[in-house]
Amino acid sequence: MGAVGADPARRRRPAGAGALAGLAAAFAGLALGELAAAFVRPEAAPLTAVGGAVVDRTPAAVKEWAIRSFGTSDKLVLTLGIAVVLAVLAAATGVLAVRRPRTGCALAAALGLLGAAAALSRPGAGWKDALPSLAAGAAATVALYLLVTVVRRPHPTAPGRGTGTWPMDRRAFGRLLTATVAASAVAGYAARRLGAHGSAGATASRADLVLPPPAAPAPPVPAGADLHVPGVGPFLTPAPDFYRVDTALVVPRVDADTWRLTVHGDGVSRPLTLTLPELLARPLTEHDITLCCVSNEVGGPYVGNARWLGVRLADLLREAGVRPPSAGGPADQLVARSVDGMTIGTPVETVMDGRDALLAVGMNGAPLPFAHGFPVRMVVPGLYGYVSACKWLTELRLTSFAAYDAYWVRRSWAQQAPVKTQSRIDTPRAFAELAAGRVAVAGVAWAQHRGIARVEVRADGGPWHEARLGDSDGDDTWRQWVWPWEAAPGEHTLEVRATDGRGAVQPEERRGTLPDGATGWHSVTVSVHA
Questions:
Q1: Confidence label for 3 from pLDDT (cuts 50, 70 and 90)
Q2: 364: left (phi > 0), else alpha (psi -120 to 50), else beta?
Q3: Which of 378, 120, 409 is nearest to 263 (CA)?
């Protein structure tokens, strides 16, 4: 009988309804934030902005672990992780708001402010980037307030009356919850449609782009460069299979018709601002170049070889009046900036020493894919990507290493990083089960801008055997290799090492990727059965 006359304020308010209210409010906020981002830029969407800020502040060692563990799916894993954390926070906020509405709503608004701060902290961000997260916080706060108001309002005929539980109007709550989710879904759909419409111009500009023929075409790939060994990829890596390692949670889709490149800074006597047609009007060079990510562990997959088409960077810099430090130029660093604010610092001396450092516009005979930097990216043979391969390029600024640290340098990576000599066993795979007899041990080796002179393989720590090399396509590309191994029954460990074109043997000592690339011999263990 005491429960019948109990003060409603003493009864247990339903935590489950509060959690649902918090989740629905978060959904409403994210949907409106995505819609607002469609009018600002995709990178300003709340989840993307927070994810980018997390990437910016994650220690280098943790980033390397994520790349090793999840590969190119690291961005998806990060986004899903943030979504799960947000869902837990939203549910907890809803439960809190049922008991303390002002505190819960204040927390929802604070999450919006946190998203805005994350958006403003991103490289190249402007004040407009905060608007989607602010809109998301406001929408979530209003939705949460309306939902918990229904939860907290006692209903005289609701189930639970007289039982000590809160007599909530479940039908009213259900109607409002459904309406909130439905409205959020409509807003989210509208955001996707607007986003697709906004990128339609970029998609059309790429589809319409016809690349001019190169003034300096690359010679045909030697017939013997590709050894056609099963288990070893093609000599030229198809664009869909080319590795992608960057910090962009959303791939920028740049409209070639509105793209501009500026060249300015120390020692630039003739600053340049170029459109894509103006860049394409210059003589184009075609060159086969192997790119490698500094995050590539010994034996790792983050290396690829492609035929690139572009303007020689040294020619463009000389047009702007730039001199290398060896000729008295004041700048020793070229800072490339992408449309999403990423900065990459490259030695001026390196890009002007005669190698085919390119502002690339084409990859394997087609315009650059969006994921690989359309419409223009940098490609510098002999340097790891984090100090050379800026994608979605929009600015080149001449400065010094003493005056400016680019994005990755501020995160414990070395200022300068020539590619280290590496070799990899692609077949047989680690822990493969093999039949006794002759087995083709094969893979690739690379030492860009020095070339590969020799590859050697050994089994079980025995003598080294020289592998047969594929024909060379120049010092800036990898070389395939193969060694016929007479495999006897038992468990065996195979190792490989390479010697570059200058006679330096790949070092045996295993070191991690920080701060300037991994070293060590790649090995695989296999089992051979009679």
A1: very low
A2: left
A3: 378
